Amino acid sequence: MSDPLPKITIDAAPADPAPPPAASKPAIPTVSPATAAFLEPYLPPPHANAYAKPLGVTQDRAPDAAQTRPFVTLTYATSLDSQLALSPGAQTALSGPLSKSLTHYLRSRHDGVLIGTGTAIADDPGLNCRTEGVGGYNNQEELDDPTKATTIAGLDDDEDEGLESDPLPGQPRPIILDPNRRWHFTRESRMFQIVREGKGKAPIILTRASSRQGSGEAERWRILCEHGGLFMCPREEMKDKSKRMKSGSRWSWKQILEFLYKEAGIQSLMIEGGGNVINDLLGRKENLELIDSVVLTIAPVYLGKGGVNVCPDGKQVEAIKVPAVNFKHVNWNVLGR
Amino acid sequence: MSDPLPKITIDAAPADPAPPPAASKPAIPTVSPATAAFLEPYLPPPHANAYAKPLGVTQDRAPDAAQTRPFVTLTYATSLDSQLALSPGAQTALSGPLSKSLTHYLRSRHDGVLIGTGTAIADDPGLNCRTEGVGGYNNQEELDDPTKATTIAGLDDDEDEGLESDPLPGQPRPIILDPNRRWHFTRESRMFQIVREGKGKAPIILTRASSRQGSGEAERWRILCEHGGLFMCPREEMKDKSKRMKSGSRWSWKQILEFLYKEAGIQSLMIEGGGNVINDLLGRKENLELIDSVVLTIAPVYLGKGGVNVCPDGKQVEAIKVPAVNFKHVNWNVLGR
């Protein structure tokens, strides 16, 4: 009988340990077929050459000549007292696992996801889609061609390759409405960590050409370009105060949407918040007309006074107050409790 | 062949025409069996000798010695922006036919229906139950003994006959929380019209013994007594401002509920609004503990700024804001669109 094999021990501590990987959040289960079927009439049409699974929208369609703006889905979660957060700037979890799945499913079905500056500052959001099967999360295309998964999916790449390729199928383009460049992001902001991990696209930051550039602006330009993101400046309206958006921009939503459609290839846009953006969209007739669909989640809690309230301006017809928004084609679905 | 019968004409105008009958609203269909089953876990237990149909609560149970207050159901309809009305005092239809059926079904299952002064003034409500089959609306007992249907169901009758009889089975007792006697009702107020029609019970008006009595007070006493209603004065708390209810009363809800249970035989109470009452109940821990059930209907509209908002006071735990109300055992049901 031969000697037993010697026990081998390996000292695994390398001389220069690699930094721990950025906390990469786990994938999120996709919505149930019943929820997907329920949502379908409220979603943009899947693109002609869409990602084969029900998830995901690719950017490989030529823009429709008759169309001038993206399909717009407004979506957010509120409490029973119509609040997004306990107080301005406070991250407030209003969604259970099922409504989180819903949000990520919706992201997979839109070319872009837009938020306002306030939300970017308060939440440091990733704005990617973590649904299993979408680019960066065990997508079949990546498994067939593993080099794709590690591509940093910047706009430069897209421009080089034309509209034909989407290195991260199903991942939406984050779009930050930041006219006055108040979002002072860093390399460690979650959106850029995610790009470096190959799990999401770099953001487009919509800004005013005339915005004052605070300290650190050159560094932010560098970070953004390095990850493949862009500052973009829609043409500004005349400086007529009456046309200003509440958030302080001089753009109209129509102008922003047409710009995103024409200049950034965004054919479907999910608008996720926050309070200023939502109230501005819901509170003006000309803005409401730009919204194709609203997906609203209501959590069974009251946050109480002092939160971030969704409540559009009141509306009058012949000096009589009438409901500000009266939704058509309403459907309800129960997600969890 | 005989002559044809002469045409007879009758001049039908009487010398002293009777006044047109008070606009008696039609009966409301009962809720579907599915909705009734959905609601059941949130309702007070049906009384031992209850009205035989699923509808209706009689007052023929002896009060439970261990219990000191009624089963309390808080119920109201809001818009997506958590508003009860477009502006203070404006009646705002937020309910479709199905949620109207729900409200009336709930009324049939409670001994009393409570509202605040503001709602009584703004809405001139009937507060009866118009569901087919309930007392005053083709109830089987009345059909067997038609004299019952025309009894004016005042408290005096109840007292004369003891707790054994309910001349209007399934009809709740309207209860108006009017500490300062601001509700200047008349004989033509809908609640009294309904009593005269034999379609509802006369109200209990909870008031302060010390309330200032405005002009016309003697006449209101007369109207109330004639219809079998009552002013009732719960014992007042010490005049400690910190214990005052927001509505200006010096009662606590605990005191009001115990009073209604012991002195008025109200074993189950539905609280229907309005804003001050709801916010006061939801906004204080000691009041929330008195609520057994909340039935909330949400209409798919935004009313817009300037309405009557349901939003309780914020709540803090160790200087950190937390949700004011976090409901347990939540269930959702879709009524209509």
Automatic annotation (TrEMBL), chains A, B:
<dbReference type="Pfam" id="PF01872">
    <property type="entry name" value="RibD_C"/>
</dbReference>
<dbReference type="GO" id="GO:0008703">
    <property type="term" value="F:5-amino-6-(5-phosphoribosylamino)uracil reductase activity"/>
</dbReference>
<protein>
    <recommendedName>
        <fullName>2,5-diamino-6-ribosylamino-4(3H)-pyrimidinone 5'-phosphate reductase</fullName>
        <ecNumber>1.1.1.302</ecNumber>
    </recommendedName>
</protein>
<keyword id="KW-0560">Oxidoreductase</keyword>
<comment type="function">
    <text>Catalyzes an early step in riboflavin biosynthesis, the NADPH-dependent reduction of the ribose side chain of 2,5-diamino-6-ribosylamino-4(3H)-pyrimidinone 5'-phosphate, yielding 2,5-diamino-6-ribitylamino-4(3H)-pyrimidinone 5'-phosphate.</text>
</comment>
<dbReference type="InterPro" id="IPR002734">
    <property type="entry name" value="RibDG_C"/>
</dbReference>
<feature type="domain" description="Bacterial bifunctional deaminase-reductase C-terminal">
    <location>
        <begin position="70"/>
        <end position="332"/>
    </location>
</feature>
<dbReference type="GO" id="GO:0009231">
    <property type="term" value="P:riboflavin biosynthetic process"/>
</dbReference>
<keyword id="KW-0521">NADP</keyword>
<comment type="similarity">
    <text>Belongs to the HTP reductase family.</text>
</comment>
<feature type="region of interest" description="Disordered">
    <location>
        <begin position="154"/>
        <end position="177"/>
    </location>
</feature>
<dbReference type="InterPro" id="IPR050765">
    <property type="entry name" value="Riboflavin_Biosynth_HTPR"/>
</dbReference>
<comment type="pathway">
    <text>Cofactor biosynthesis; riboflavin biosynthesis.</text>
</comment>
<keyword id="KW-0686">Riboflavin biosynthesis</keyword>
<feature type="region of interest" description="Disordered">
    <location>
        <begin position="1"/>
        <end position="28"/>
    </location>
</feature>
<feature type="compositionally biased region" description="Low complexity">
    <location>
        <begin position="1"/>
        <end position="15"/>
    </location>
</feature>
<dbReference type="InterPro" id="IPR024072">
    <property type="entry name" value="DHFR-like_dom_sf"/>
</dbReference>
<feature type="compositionally biased region" description="Acidic residues">
    <location>
        <begin position="155"/>
        <end position="164"/>
    </location>
</feature>
